[in-house]
TrEMBL record:
Response regulatory domain location: 12-128
Keyword Phosphoprotein assigned: yes
Entry-linked Pfam families: Response_reg
Keyword Chaperone recorded: no
GO biological process, one term: phosphorelay signal transduction system
Annotated positions of the 4-aspartylphosphate modification: D61
Top-level taxon of origin: Bacteria
Keywords, comma-separated and alphabetical: Phosphoprotein
Gene3D superfamilies per UniProt: 3.40.50.2300
InterPro entries in the record: Bact_response_regulator, CheY-like_superfamily, Sig_transdc_resp-reg_receiver
UniProt name for this protein: Response regulator
Native organism: Sphingomonas ginkgonis
Length: 173
């Protein structure tokens, strides 16, 4: 089997699942799609990885031991640095209540097993595209904020010069 060719710009995906088999299958398949894949068996390990390395998307099992995928999502959403990180949770059952709780916690999507891998990759691509647009919008907003501040300073300086000219005219005239 050919090894995937990774680009330094390829999105990095962190997969969290307590099943080594599930991790291996997802990592192999997503790696073959050209994604840079990291894996963690627990939510705690995943949080450590998120602090260590920038990640573009998080995929986690809903039923993780100790800290569920839903709770992991809540923790991620509370952190400013990860607030916009796309999160997909994978549920082993089609229980509507768990899906609703996951979405309420801030998950962007919930995929129910068994799923078609092509559907998962389409959802990943959609979320990564949206994430790129959100980051670009934030950068554009920061640029606009910078321009507004610069213009406000320039306006204040012009106002000060105008007052000085008016005062000079008052003394002369």
């Amino acid at each position: 089997m050919d090894q995937p060719v990774y680009s330094a710009a390829a999105p990095r995906i962190l997969i969290v699942d307590s099943s080594r088999n599930n991790l291996a299958v997802l990592a192999r398949r997503l790696g073959a799609e050209g994604y840079r894949v990291m894996v963690a068996e627990t939510a705690t390990t995943a949080l450590g990885e998120l602090q260590r390395v920038p990640v573009d998307l998080l995929i986690a099992d809903l039923a993780l031991p100790l800290m569920s995928g839903t709770e992991l999502t809540r923790v991620v959403r509370r952190e400013l640095a990860w607030r916009d990180l796309p999160v997909i949770l994978i549920s082993g059952r089609s229980e509507a209540d768990g899906v609703v709780r996951a979405l309420a916690a801030g998950a962007d999507d919930v995929v129910v097993k068994p799923f078609h891998f092509e559907v998962l990759t389409a959802r990943i691509a959609r979320l990564l595209e949206r994430s790129t647009r959100v980051r670009q919008l934030a950068a554009d907003n920061a640029t606009l904020d910078e321009r507004v501040v610069r213009r406000a300073i320039e306006l204040g300086e012009a106002r000060d010069r105008l007052k000085a000219l008016e005062a000079e005219l008052g003394r002369v005239g």
